[in-house]
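Course assignment 3, question 2. Fill in each field.
Student: A.L.
Task: Predict the tertiary structure for the chain below.
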Amino acid sequence: MKGNRLTIYIMVGMVLGIIAGHICHSMAPSPEAAQEIAGYFNVVTDIFLRLIKMIIAPLVFSTIVAGIAGTEGSAAIGRVGAKALGWFWVASIVSLALGMICVNVLKPGVGLSLPLPDVGASSGISGKAMDVKGFVVSIFPKSIFDAMAQNAILQILVFSVFFGFAMAAFRDDTAKTLIRMIRELSHVMFKVTDFVMRFAPFGVFAAIASCITIEGLGVLITYGKFIGGFYVSLLILWMLLIGAGYVFLRGSIFRLLKLVREPTILAFSTASSEAAFPMTMERLERFGVKERISGFVLPLGYSFNLDGSMIYQAFAVIFIAQAYDIHLSLSEQVTLLLVMMATSKGIAGVARASLVVVAANLSMYKLPEAGLLLIMGIDQLLDMGRTATNVIGNSIATAVIAKWEGELEPLGDDTDFPVTSGG
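Answer field:
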């Protein structure tokens, strides 16, 4: 499907989803009925997300293994990994710091003056995040089949690195046939990705309709100040990320943004990083990033480079403190930033991970955990923005690292490419 046409279909799906959701919300006689109606929309969303999930494991495995088997050695992988992690940590610090600065300047929670809730009041979200030891252990899979079944990208990455190095270690033709088969598998998986993405407009329509059916259009107004402030912060972060990309990619950064437009819209509308992952990888290939870079850096970024989630966590915690008239000193906020840097890396694969990190830091700073209830109702709308930002951040990071490694080969026209794995 042509890129421009897919963009139009996805946008149409979003608009129709808003209209359908508003109609269903208006006609629903009760919140329970709205939940039931939304459940029918969720059937379509769940099917689309299942289609996405079924291609993630073989796509990550084939691209990483094929890339490593074609590299000059372990030194190259180590060099790429070090550059990627360096970029990720800097981007994370900038995102967290920007979130804190914006929420302190915009003050979306000031004036609410909410009374402190009872000690027993709870948001229903566990504040316990995975510790560093648990995170390190969880990186290594007990079984590659279990890792693939769970779509544990970081575990699949570890196994694929070992498998790729094992294949590359053969100096004769022992693994030649297997290498060719895996490379051909990566080409096939990109074609499967193209087929699956033809269903994206339907998935987008259903996801938006379900959200509006339950919450109604009023949710866009009730929390307008908080939502507006957060999206202003995201816009500033986008400008910083694009600016950083321009330093290294020059004018090509705008070509990259054009190419990743569809996966960004898809991530925004479905609030699912998994939904956008296959298309993001394919668009990076179109941009000219070689498989050995995109297949390694992009999955790594999905665990370590969640720029949108970072800025949200800082914004949300300070917002809750403002809402309850609780003052956090500059030193406390700086400490909070450093704590979030550590805890957020340990729960990248946890459902509603950003909410878990926020809950963990609320209890750490003796902020009302029930404050999480203030934002849980609109978390879907916030998740849409932070997920789209994660896609943009990881796309730029992957392209920049490819440029550093001399693995970037622009391929020409962007608008009507067949889905291939690299040209």
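Instructor remarks: DSSP finds 19 helices and no strands in the chain. The first helix runs from residue 3 to 27.
Grade: pending
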